Amino acid sequence: MSTRLALGLVLAVAATATACGSRCKEVEHARTTLAARTGDETRGADVRVSVPFDKANTFIAELLRAEPLTMPLEAPDLGPIEVTIPALVAEAREVRLIAGADDKIRIATQVAVREPGQPEIAMLEMTAEVTPVVSRDALVIGLGLENILAMKPALGTVSVRALGDVVTRWLPERIRTKAPRVVIDLAAAKLARYLTGAAFQAMQRTLLRRMGEVTKLKLRLPDVPVKRVAIRSSETALRVDISTDLPVRRGLAPNPDMGADITVHVSASAAAELANWAIDNGQAPRWYDRNLNPRPNGEFRPKFDYVAEDGAHPLKVFAFQERGGCSYFRVGVRAQVAMAGDQVRVTALDRTLEASAANPLVEIGAWAKFFATGWVDRTKRVAAHTQVKIGNRVLETRVVGISLVDHELRVALQLAANAPSSAPRDR
Predict the structure, then answer these.
(1) For residue 134, what are the domain limits?
(2) In 206-327, which residue ranges form alpha helices assigned H by DSSP?
(3) Which pLDDT value is given to residue 427?
(4) Relative orientation angle of helices 207-215 and 53-66, to the nearest 10 degrees
(5) Buried-most residue among 26, 365, 398, 409 (CB within 10 A)?
(6) Are 78 and 187 in contact (CB under 8 A)?
(7) What is the C-alpha separation between 129 and 321, in angstroms, rounded?
């Protein structure tokens, strides 16, 4: 080999090494810059679960119809008038979730008091304000002993006059038309005091406690790294706002449009960070080869970001080559999201290569489409993790709709009731 050729080879190798070193520094700078992003501490919730009250209350009503809850009541003393009181029964008729103050929910209940073969003689109405029990993965709403003891029963629309008519029906026939109305009204007042006093105290120990067990609602929260949970409600829906400890740049709007379905809203920025979190924690493939196949020994690792201020291409899809070379690229995407059957359909309305360093021989458009779909699919999986359990019945959720609106991924869920659990309940 000539001296001149040898020198040329040395210079070529040196130039290549210099270029590779420069390129690796560029790739590392891009990776470090992305890793250094910080969240907005003043943002709203990252994830929101909305449960319409009428959906939950419909299932509660079905449970009470399928498993009637009753208890016998002792006959009250309505003397001095002679009264033949039939066997009285208290029957749970209604348990409804209604709006409460922040971090609370109100539970309205109705218990009918009736005699065999007759309409109810009175309807006790009670409302309790409860604080849901929240853990990192679930929220539980139910009547506990402390709530029951704080309840104050009312007789609803029943009047003393109407109770007087009941007392009259209980009188022996020989005196039914002779008893003075004032005496009957006194007996009716005693009956009212009994129903809201001694009878209600007896219900606290048995019937109301069982109502709490049968109608307890447990909401399994989406699978996200929960930092804080806040309970809010409108007149129509329970709202659970979840904040994460991820570097989310933009949260959800404070006043959501809550529809008729159970919905999970995820800010698009949070969706990007949840996709990164899943990859980092092994819940999604970490490595891919040049042909988009997930491989443990793949060279490429995806990352996501979402910059709402970039209206043209807010979703950022990164691919970093971390093995077998130094390269990366970043594609900006503006996407449309919908459901096609049970599958997520992502349409890239526009995309552009925003940055690259010695891009390897890969089809960047295919990579951008593939990972943009994965970004949405991760949110679908997060939403589908949501589950409702009422009493011993699990209501599984199925994703029936998904859209990207105002920098939010909105997922609609449909409930389906499974068979009741066979686990024994404390009676």
Answers:
(1) 53-218
(2) 207-215, 268-280
(3) 35
(4) 120
(5) 409
(6) yes
(7) 55
Q: Given CA atoms 220, 221, 225, 228 in this order, what sign does their dihedral have? A: negative
Residue 143 lies in a domain: yes
The answer to whether the CB of 351 falls within 8 A of the CB of 313 is yes
Q: Are 267 and 251 in contact (CB under 8 A)?
A: yes
- Single pTM value for the model: 0.85
Kindly state the tokens that stand for 273: 């960070």
Written as six digits, the tokens of 390 are: 């009422």
* Burial classification of residue 308, based on how many CB atoms lie within 10 Å of its CB (0-12 exposed, 13-18 middle, 19 or more buried): middle
Residues 209, 340 within the same domain:
no
Kindly calculate the radius of gyration of the chain based on its CA atoms and give it in whole angstroms: 32
75 and 191 assigned to the same domain: yes
Neighbours of 82 (CB within 10 A): 12
CB distance 216 to 87 below 8 Å: no
Residue 321 inside a domain? The answer is yes
- Quote the strand ranges of 146-260, DSSP E: 217-220, 226-233, 237-244
Q: What is the pLDDT of residues 103-146, one digit of tens each?
A: 999 999 999 999 877 889 999 999 999 999 998 789 999 998 88
Other Cβ atoms within 10 Å of 260 Cβ, number: 11
- Say yes or no: 145 and 290 in one domain: no
- The count of structural domains within the chain is 2
**316 domain residue, yes or no:** yes
If you search the block for the tokens 């309505």, which residue do you land on? 78
The answer to the question of residue 42 being in a domain is no
Question: What percent of the chain stands above pLDDT 90?
Answer: 60
